[in-house]
Amino acid sequence: MRKTIYYTDELNEDFAENGIKTKKIPADFVYLHREWYWRAAATLIYRVIAWPIVFLFVKVVYLQRFRNRKVMRKISREGGYLYANHTNALLDVYTPYIVRLRRRNYIVAGPDAFSIPGICWLVQMLGGIPLGSTIAQEHQMRECVQERVRDGNLVTVFPEAHIWPYYTGIRPYRSATFHYPAQDGAAVYTMTHCYRKRRIGRYVKVDTYLDGPFYADMSLPLPQRRQELRDRCYDAMCKRAEAHSDYAYWTYLRKETEKEKTEGEQIR
Fold first, then answer.
1. Buried b vs exposed e over 145-182: b needs ≥16 C-beta within 10 Å?
2. How many CB atoms lie within 10 A of CB 12?
3. 63, 166, 199, 263: which has the fewest Cβ within 10 Å?
4. What is the DSSP letter of 46?
């Protein structure tokens, strides 16, 4: 169903409408499971069950096509980070599975993904890495992410943080989300979902553009390194969205805040 959404804050508003009651990540949450049976079960679920379902879903429902996928060959056996726009709850979760076939892809996710009763273990087996809510968990999360990259896998990050379904632009995001690749110098790719109108019907189809690899300038101090890396990735995503997203299934319009209205009245 087509909608018009009114927003005031690009950084903090969320329109996912998933109805999930968010819970904190348990204090005893284990980020890295090294048991053979856990790893075997995770591989089975990821490769044999989830992958075929995901592939069919994105191809049938969204007619998804990858563009410029050849850039992934540059790190065929290396790990890295994949930064994507956050515009579709299902597509954002599913697409990382099939970006690179020979290696796994893990996804840094908010607590919502781990708040559905009874399936926290499944989300983790499928590659979910929850954002830590305590200092101890943040430390474990960092170790987990860095180990996944060292093992040659991709870790997907959604720097916009909040879901804006079918949004055709790229929202501003913070350089802090690039801390890990700026620190360890690993490759960074961008993945931009671009929405286009189908020839038949009013629904959308999706072209997903990949760009990179981008590397941090290790000669710069860490804060500048993060900012410079963020700016290059942001520019690449903006160019893709501007050039290839040509159908607004949901329309987003900015409305004035009460503060802006008051200031406007004072000026008049």
1. bbebbeebbbbbbbbbbbbbbbbbebbebebebbbbbb
2. 9
3. 199
4. I
Q: Answer whether the bond into residue 159 is a cis peptide, omega within 30°.
A: no
**Tens-level pLDDT at each residue, the chain (268 residues):** 788 999 999 888 988 776 677 788 888 889 999 999 999 999 999 889 888 888 898 888 889 999 999 998 888 788 999 999 999 988 898 888 888 877 889 999 888 888 777 788 888 998 999 988 889 999 999 999 999 999 999 999 999 989 999 999 999 999 999 999 999 999 999 999 999 988 877 689 999 999 999 999 999 999 999 999 999 999 999 999 999 998 999 999 998 765 555 555 455 4
**CA 234, chain centre distance (Å):** 13
> Which domains occur in the chain, in start order?
3-267 (3.40.1130)
CB atoms within 10 A of CB 9: 10
| Tally of helices (H runs) and strands (E runs) in the chain | 8, 9
Tokens of 230: 């963020």
Written as six digits, the tokens of 172 are: 């501003």
The residues near 81 (Cβ < 8 Å, ≥ 6 apart) are 149, 154, 155, 156, 157, 180, 181, 186, 187, 188, 189
